[in-house]
Amino acid sequence: MSDSDSDDWSEEWIPYSQRAEWADVVPLAQDDGERPIVAIAYSPKFREVFDYFRAIIAHKEKSPRALELTADALQLNPANYTVWQYRRDILRALGSDLYEELDYLEEVIRDNAKNYQVWHHRRVIVEMLNNPSKELELTEVALERDNKNYHAWQHRQWAIKAFDLYENELTFVDRLIAEDIRNNSAWNQRFFVLKHFGLTPEVVQREIQYTMNRIRVVKNNESAWNYLGGILRHGDHGTVNRNVEVISFCEELYASGVRSPYLLAFLIDLYKEQCLQQTNEADAEVLSKKVYNLCSDMSKNHDVVRRKYWQYVADQLKLKLSEK
To answer: Which InterPro entries does the protein's record reference (predicted)?
Structure first.
């Protein structure tokens, strides 16, 4: 909730200046200087809450009422790092029930799922408790609302890595990819999990089959093509051109009339690598022509926005071949 959402006093909310238990505190106004260049039009509620917040910081007060005040301040500005940090200081000083804090954070995250400070605070509390039991469920709920929420994915990866929660993650990722085959975040999570367990030749071969099957379903899926290239480069000495099955798969797609720019880009990389590794001049010439034709097709028809890039790719190959 932002300042603009709370411009007026509500019937339930009592200003701090009218609360008897806060009578001993003198609010500390923000000092913007005599002639601020751009004066921010804070609402009365926003101004009052933060004036009192500045006052308790100045007096280093860490009390239950100060904790309550931080909740009001965060409702008005949930991205304020200083308020979150001071709230943590208060929680430590009071020895507060941190499980109650996790419950509070679930509510805050529900309305602020893309707020870095909220997730950071959550991480610190989980670390203090040394208990990640709610984190996978929490992030799953956040991802159901937005399956590409970067902060939720980042928090999930942190929890999995910090507390070794890898066991069932591949099943979770499979479900997300089945629901949305273009979910790049889910493909990235799949690679994250497999790297932990180890990309053995057997795993690489399994993943190649898995990815090709999904490309057959949706051929113009950038996420799957990127994943396929990443798996091959990780499993085969940094190249994509040594797996005969993948080469045949790509060439068959092309021969059948598929002109996905991701397929063409994959073939360009594949043929370019083969060409530069080729010792037979005639074979190298055949491969280089394939690269030039595909680059031309990309620049004129399938990826016109990046036409200069594809021209550059072709020119760089010509340069490297001239230097051999």
So the answer is: Prenyl_trans_a
Task: Please tell me whether residue 26 adopts helix, strand or coil conformation.
Answer: coil
Question: Can you list the alpha helix ranges (DSSP code H) found in the chain?
Answer: 44-58, 64-76, 81-94, 98-111, 116-129, 135-145, 150-163, 169-179, 184-197, 201-217, 222-235, 244-255, 261-277, 281-297, 307-323
User: Does pTM top 0.90 for this prediction?
Assistant: no
User: What is the rounded CA–CA span in Å between residue 101 and residue 107?
Assistant: 10
The DSSP string of 245-310 is HHHHHHHHHHHTT---HHHHHHHHHHHHHHHHH---HHHHHHHHHHHHHHHHHIIIII-GGGHHHH
114-127 per-residue burial string, b: 16 or more CB within 10 A, e: under 16: ebebbbbbbbebbe
Which pLDDT score, from 0 to 100, does residue 237 have? 60
Cβ pair 273, 240 in contact under 8 A: yes
Q: Is the pLDDT of residue 249 over 50?
A: yes
Rounded to whole angstroms, how far apart are CA atoms 27 and 24? Answer: 10
pLDDT tens-digit readout, 270-321: 999 999 999 899 999 999 999 999 999 999 999 999 999 999 999 999 999 9
Kindly state the tokens that stand for 127: 């670390």
- The tens digit of pLDDT for each residue in 135-144 reads 999 999 999 9
Closest CA to 30 of 47, 6, 9, 8: 47
Map residue 173 onto helix, strand or coil: helix
Do residues 13 and 45 lie in contact, with contact meaning Cβ atoms separated by under 8 Å?
yes
The first and second tokens of residue 181, run together, are 């085959």
Q: Euclidean distance between the first and final Cα of the chain, in Å?
A: 62
> Which residue has better confidence, 129 or 39?
129
pLDDT of residue 312: 98
Residues with catalytic function: 114
